[in-house]
Amino acid sequence: MKKSFGKLSNVLLITAVTALVATACGNSDNNSSNASPSNTASSSSSASTTPEPSQDSGKKETLVYYGFSEWTADPAYAPVFEELKAKFESDNPGYTVDFQSDPWGTWETKYKVMFASGNAPDVFIVNNPDFPTFANSGYLLDLGSKMDAAAFGDYFPGILSMYKWNGKNMALPYTTDARVLWYNKDLFTKAGLDPNSPPKTWAELKADALQIEEKTDAAGYGMDLGLKEFPAQSLFTASDSNIISVDAAGAITPTVNTEAFKGYLQTLADMKPAYESDYATLDHLKVGTLFAQQKVAMVIAGTWVTDQNPDIKGAAWIGQSLVPKMNESAPDGSFGGGFGIGVSANSKHPEQAIKLAQLLTSVDFNARTMSDVPANNASLAVSKFATDPAYKIFMDQIKFARQSQPKTLFYKEIDAAVYDTVTKVIVGGQKVDEAVADLEGKIKEIAAAK
User: Fold this and answer.
1) Exposed e or buried b per residue across 319-351, where buried means at least 16 C-beta atoms within 10 angstroms of its C-beta
2) Distance in angstroms (rounded) separating the CA atoms of residues 265 and 9
3) Do the domains at 9-177+337-402 and 180-335+410-448 have one common CATH topology?
4) Residue 262: phi, psi to the nearest 5?
5) Cβ atoms < 10 Å from Cβ of 80
6) pTM score, two decimals?
7) More exposed terminus of the chain, fewer Cβ within 10 Å: N or C?
8) pLDDT < 50: residue spans in the chain
9) Which fold has domain 180-335+410-448?
């Protein structure tokens, strides 16, 4: 899925959305042609009683790290990975690191095949949408049982929760993203609105969008229903609610018959006159471009707006603010995606593999080994996002990023069910109460499939 901020931002958010949009879980392709020829070293992924290397013998044990080439092999980041390698090998005599990678389209499939075929790397990037399958399949080492609780203290809570399985920390957050409200100050002025006072609540968002639609030639709000994922999820996360709850036994209960979810649906339905005419087929990138063309007054989006349309970066007419909340007393929120760093449950050298994972997410290396937003406070503070004024609002928003449901094996199916519900309400005109009742039944049906 998805899915951020930088060279790989569009790829991440298209697949993650921040997004972030998502790859299919599972391992349906075990064709040997997909096996990485460079992974002979990753025999370290199978359980073994191999003795620890002797520092005197000169022999080194190899830890395999697997990521995608857009970072690991990119000239902008490869020297930093070599620096990290030198640091790790200095701190861990007798061990060396082999950085392996493939381009995104290949990596996305190959790393699933590597695990399914018993050829797993020791340390690897885990895609957020794939996390439930990896955790449930026993591929991931329980880091919480091996690391002090303080090691997880600096990560943003909503992002850390994305890598919990049955209450256990099964991966370290590596990157993240968030969406903010982008608005057109000139169109606000033309509509008789204060250009320095963007909407802060759902009610204000609706009122402003409808007023802009009435008073100008632009659409008031950009809806990306064509993305075929949970529409305007950032809007819903700026409430005190979730789509489901999961108990200690893993039982899933729908939690959509709430003021928050009903209010979210009603807000989207009420804003329909303010949408661009092709809203049902537009995805997030197309809506971002319409905003750049000043045809849409407001969008909730990530940095792809200016990444895709660099000519508008720094334009005086662009305003940014936090995602409007359900009401003044509701918590702030935004959708967050990204990637984690996982350790194979079958690594022959789990202690050293954990150290490598920690080094990758440390303040010294996290922000310098990838182009997205670091997922912890310390690394974010030394990243480019902390000094570039264009990202100030993202710095404020990122700490509130989360997802609208706990991680389960049915994440994608439930997300799709929410999309269908929103479509029926907005496009089909279904009544909110009826739509919520249908969604409750659908979620129960999905959960019963286990």
Assistant:
1) bbbbbbbbbeebeebbbbbbbbbbbbbbbbbbe
2) 29
3) yes
4) -65, -40
5) 17
6) 0.81
7) C
8) 1-50
9) D-Maltodextrin-Binding Protein; domain 2 (3.40.190)
CB 30 within 8 A of CB 47: no
∠ at Cα 233 (230, 235), nearest 5°? 145
Edge-first strand order for the sheet with 318-321 is 298-301, 180-184, 318-321
Q: Could you report the per-residue pLDDT of 337-380, keeping only the tens digit for each?
A: 899 999 999 999 999 999 999 999 999 999 999 998 899 999 99
Q: What is the pLDDT of residue 57?
A: 55
Q: What is the pLDDT of residue 38?
A: 34
Q: Which of 426, 444, 445 is nearest to 435 (CA)?
A: 426
Indicate the domain borders of the chain: 9-177+337-402, 180-335+410-448
d(Cα 338, Cα 345) in Å, to the nearest integer? Answer: 22
Query: What pLDDT, on a 0 to 100 scale, did the predictor assign at position 56?
Result: 52
Fold held by 9-177+337-402: D-Maltodextrin-Binding Protein; domain 2 (3.40.190)
CA-closest candidate to residue 232, choices 272, 195, 185, 187:
272
